[in-house]
Amino acid sequence: MTGAASWSFSENDFKQIQTHLQAFLRDSNARCALLVDRTGQLVATVGETPQFDPTAFASLTAADFSANDQLAKMIGEPEFASLVHQGEKESMYLADVAKRVILVVLFDQRATLGLVKLKARSVVESLNKVFEEMFNRVGTGGAPQKGLLEGAEDEIDKLFG
Amino acid sequence: MSMINYASREINCKLVYYGPGLGGKTTNLEHVYAKVSPQTRGKMISLATETERTLFFDFLPVDLGTIRGFKTRFHLYTVPGQVYYNASRKLILKGVDGIVFVADSQLERMEANVESMQNLYDNMAEYGYDLTKIPFVVQYNKRDLPNAAPIKDLQAALNPGWPIEDAAQQKVTPDPSHPGENLVASEGGQWVGRAPYLEAVAVRGDGVFDTLKVVSKLVLKTLS
């Protein structure tokens, strides 16, 4: 691999993800679910609109997950597939999806950690399938978006004056 | 790892500012943050120690404009420059689309620059990324200081070039930032490629946007 692999997802992928996450939020009583890719880019947000800056949140989530991944290796675990950050009122549950994406669930006292964990397990399974299909479709490397920016050199030049 | 989101019509790319400690990586981001309109940038996040040394990373999202109806959003990251933070530094490189190496021009920092460049090559290799094949720019910072080393010496130490074996790429490519110089040229019978370089005084903002422009343009061009 010469550089990082690229990936893209269609509106149809997005709808599938949304449907799964909406059902999860309904079943678990959680407030909001975010999907963040491992490089810190926000993929999707479902549920209550977060009151914080979601972009910054996504980059910190990815860093948090990566740091914990390394900690897991240090103590002899291949990974921590999920993490919990429990606060007095607000809590977070993070889980790995298809090794490329992180599911972040925000929940408060209306939901219990046990229920969130239980329901998250099945939504992660469904999301794993969606993402694996997505990655298989576009391949693991290369630039699937080639068509999009092909011949856009002039536009790129113009963008930078 | 650039990501295209067709639902929100965004292209997201990740740029990492790498280099030795106290070289000016965070200063680059702070200048971009200060000068870009709040509508086109997000919040700057700094995970730093009490003495303002980067502990994990700084992060700044910036929108650079629209191409083919897609918003081009660049996520700018810095790494901690200090040698002993390598574990966290390596994490930030994951999924990188473009790299700016911020070198400290001061003569006495030459060794730190070389060590950091070597560390960058090593960390990239561990991810299976080839630095000679992804958008990569070297910024020589602190050019205003009296003890700044000549560009020629910095280039020889940090950007000496790599052999180009692929015949399709063996063509003279002028360096748009330095008339009369080439990014790809034949030297003594061997084709050599170099990363574009820029001079900067990041505390004054000199060269900061030029660097960002060069690297982000290279990243977008790899997508086209």
Key features of this structure:
A: 161 residues, globular, B: 224 residues, alpha/beta, Rossmann fold, 2 domains, eight-stranded mixed beta sheet, four-stranded antiparallel beta sheet, 5 helices, 12 strands
Fold and architecture overview:
The complex is a heterodimer of chains A (161) and B (224). By secondary structure, chain A is an alpha+beta fold. Helices cover 47% and strands 21% of the residues of chain A. Chain A has helices at 11-28, 54-74, 113-138, 146-149, 153-159, and strands at 7-9, 32-37, 42-47, 82-86, 91-97, 101-107. In chain A, a hairpin with a 4-residue loop joins strand 4 and strand 5. In chain A, helix 1 (11-28) packs antiparallel against helix 3 (113-138). The longest helix of chain A is centred in the last third of the chain and has 26 residues, at 113-138. Chain B is of the alpha/beta class and 224 residues long. Chain B has 2 domains: 3-159 and 195-222, Rossmann fold; 162-194, no CATH class. Chain B is 26% helix and 31% strand. Chain B has helices at 25-35, 86-92, 110-127, 151-158, 208-222, and strands spanning 3-5, 10-18, 45-48, 54-67, 70-78, 98-104, 136-141, 162-163, 173-174, 182-187, 190-193, 197-199. In chain B, strands 1, 2, 3, 4, 5, 6, 7 and 12 form an 8-stranded mixed sheet that branches. In chain B, strands 8-11-10-9 form a 4-stranded antiparallel sheet, with no helix packed on it. In chain B, helix 3 (110-127) links the parallel strand 6 (98-104) and strand 7 (136-141). Chain B is globular. The two termini of chain B are 15 Å apart. The mean pLDDT of chain B is 93. Classes of the chains: A alpha+beta (161), B alpha/beta (224). At the A-B interface, strand 1, helix 2, helix 4 and helix 5 of A face strand 1, strand 2, strand 4, strand 5 and helix 2 of B. Strand 1 (7-9) of chain A pairs parallel with strand 1 of chain B.
